[in-house]
Fold this sequence. Notes:
By secondary structure, chain A is of the alpha+beta class. Helices cover 35% and strands 17% of the residues of chain A. Chain A is globular and about 75 Å long. Chain B is mostly helical.
Amino acid sequence: MTRIFAGRTRLGVAIVSLCLLAAGCSTTATTKYWGQVEAPDDNVLRYITGSEPESLDPSFVTGQPEARILIGLFDRLVEYHPKTMQPIPSMATHWEVSDDGIDYTFHLRKNGKYSNGDPITAKDFEWSFKRALSPELASRYAFIGFEIKYAEQYNAKQSFAKKDGKFLNADENGEPLDSCDVDGPACLTLAADEESLAKIKKDNAELATRIEGAEFVEIKPDDIGVNATDDYTLEVTLKQPAPYFVGMLTHQFFAAVHRPTIEKHGKNWIKPENIVTSGAFKVEEWKPYDEMTIVRDPNYWDAKNVKLDAVKFYPMDEQTTMMNIYKAGRVDALYNHTVPAAWNEFIRQFKDEYLLHPEVTIEYYTFSVKKKPFDNLDVRKAFSLAVNRESLEVLRKTVKKSADFVPLGIFPEYEKARTKVFAELSEKDGITPEQMQKRLFDPTAACAHMKKAGYSVQMTGSDKCKVTDFPLDGVELSYNTAESNKQVAEFVQSQWQQNLGLTIPLKNMEFKTYLPYRSAIEYKGVARAGWVGDFMDPYTFLSQFYTEANDSSTGWWDPVYDKMLDDANKTLDPEKRYEKLAEAEYYVLKDQPVMPLSVAGTSWMKKPYVKGMYPNPGTMHPWKFVYIEKDRAKWDQNVDKIMTEQSDPAIDAEVAALMKSQLDFERANASKSEEGGEDEETDKTE
Amino acid sequence: MLQFIFKRLIVIIPMALVVVTVTWGLIRTAPGNFYSTEKKLPPAIEKNIKEKYGLDKPWYVQYGKLMGNIIRLDFGDSLKYEGQSVNEIIWRHLPYSATIGFLAYLVALLIGLTAGIIAALRQNSAFDYSSMALSMLGLSVPNFVLGPILVLIFALWLFWLPPARWGGVSSVVMPVITLAAVYAAYIARLTRAGMLEVLRSDYIRTARAKGLDEKTVLLKHALRGGIIPVVSFTGPALASLLAGTVVVERVFAIPGLGNIFIQSVLNRDEPLILGIVAFLSILVMIFNLIVDISYGYLDPRIRYE
């Protein structure tokens, strides 16, 4: 009998616990903070950055988890502004661009030091850039450096062609060249292995005759457009103007690595016992899949402004585990997209902790434009117009609707130009402002487009229709397996069902299986895609459709569009350049190779005592600005306004002080060129 | 006996090679590769990567090299984790999994055997019914449900234990309980059934008839035969427990082998997948061998030929 009673007691305990648990939940909901909130005694930030870092080699890694760690470990010429992610001076105090937008000169500070005390010079940056671009390193991110002259060719092991002692000109009508100096006209470059040469012989008779009898000179690291003219001046020559180039240099790919360490230890240079770093922090301990600790480096040039003693990164993959550990007060901040969709409604009420801001990411569906039925522009338009993005926004809770490809809320200056340009161009095309607005959802127009495409359309309501003879058997909506992707796919499917009367089957695939499937355009009709900007410029999105080998996975390509982008990038005046980019965006959207759906939101949490950490568009935090505020009165409140109204004077002043060197330099240059253009040249050579 | 062990050991290596070959074939037929990301790579970069990792060679050259490596018990370097060898990764993460697995099995044995024996001795009593009902519950509640429930109560409501991560005794408690529950339940049922069968057998009646006291009958005679099903179960169970359990390690963010294994598959990290698969298969075969050997000690009727 007693045993049965014991069993009952156990059941009772369980029931009581569950009741108390429910009560616990409801009490948490009414308190200000979620879970345990107590500022730590030490100056250590505990952070979850996602998966285990694959390496600590900044030139080699590609993922965001690694990128966030490496911001602390390796210094670059410029670093991210903590709020906007625009470049601000770091190792380079100031820089200048030649009038043709090709030559960049960076002036380095003289007190830069590696973690072992060695000075960081322009020569170190030169070596680091060249190593990062080398074919031997085989970095997946090498393409980010391809704006540098001959960098792409060096990475692809190409050669110059030399005939009669002179180099062939890239321009077939151009004179042969004495040298392939980066400052001179471009030399002809080509892959000179037997296979490629045989292919040229077969496919390109003209080129084959040109290079007949030529000797091939392999492109060496010294041929590319990176050159340290002295210890503190670095010159970079680009292949064509790229006004976004300085912004790219915030990427870890362009960080300073320590040559002697790499030459001595080879691939083992990243082990904690060997590694030499150049950033505000250095590696203290690395326990894979468990913890990585980086500590303040006293050798760092700005060490006095580094507030944290250490940052601890905990690699983790399960969203709920991250949330649990956050709630229990065992980490201080999380990375983006950590709040599970189902929790969103509950979590967002913690206004002092939950950060939802626009992200430099566009979510969209691609069309296979070379295959039926999506080779028809009207069909593409119809499918895009038949999806109510407003409802999608309500459903997803963390995203913002978008019919444009460059995400809204990230590039305010570009948006101004875009509004203006889109209004002008649409007027020219006879599209009313109302119609422009209704690109987000216009079922009536969608039906009209289907009709125009030649399908039989029966109206089933005032704005809904049923397309009866659309070839459904060849069409699928493909996406990579993820809860949120499934939610969107099912929503879009139902929209097409309601508004066009078409039931498009869904197909989901594991991520790594999906990628080659989509990029080879093997999908049937429609596929899910998302694009995270590589740098803070609209071009990172628009270049998705640039050149025939573009990354859009649609099959779409238009030389006119390429020319528009080239023209825009040659324009040095930022405002005019944005207008030209907006024209290009209008041009590509008019052809609808993709249907933009939404701009992603950051969606993460931090404890209110973590300050100097902002929900910037890429969730990239320069750790030197972050600190732990022990004084409860100064804790962050209502972080919705953290990017605008709520300022942190200390951090703002610090950022302003860093930016001063470049602003002063630009101002001085401007006043000089006003005084007389002739002086400018002499200034630059100083 | 020695001959038996020797014969079995000889088979292990070719068996492992077969397992690895099949796995290798499966990985190769799966689309995608370790370097693919959302951004499409320019062909030249892809070529550099293939050259760097020897993926540009014909498949039989790659396969031959792989087999050569495995025979030397060297699986090469991970493709995903730059500069880390597969052996280094396995040996680094095995202790975490092994600690949790071993503790969990110990707890499971303790609870399972005790409950099973008492239930068998007091068949149809209240204890029997309640413990068997509880074990049914243990079997049917999956660990990905039990784990989060424990976390909810002890980590997020009472704040007694850390919700996840490795570090100290307190961090081991919940993973061990989560993992042990289902094994304890299973062992309890196996023990009960085994004991019930043995208790009815002739040799127990003989032992009792000899006038042996109940304690000797139970512990010296009945138990040895009664737990044979548990022993057969222990081999594979212990092998898989020691080598890591995916769900528990992920829920509790434990840097164990199971966690690494699932990640290596998602990453298409071929050497790491093959290394772990080979290691696991060898481990399972060795544990099975140990189980087979132990039968002889438990049941005098079993002889090795």
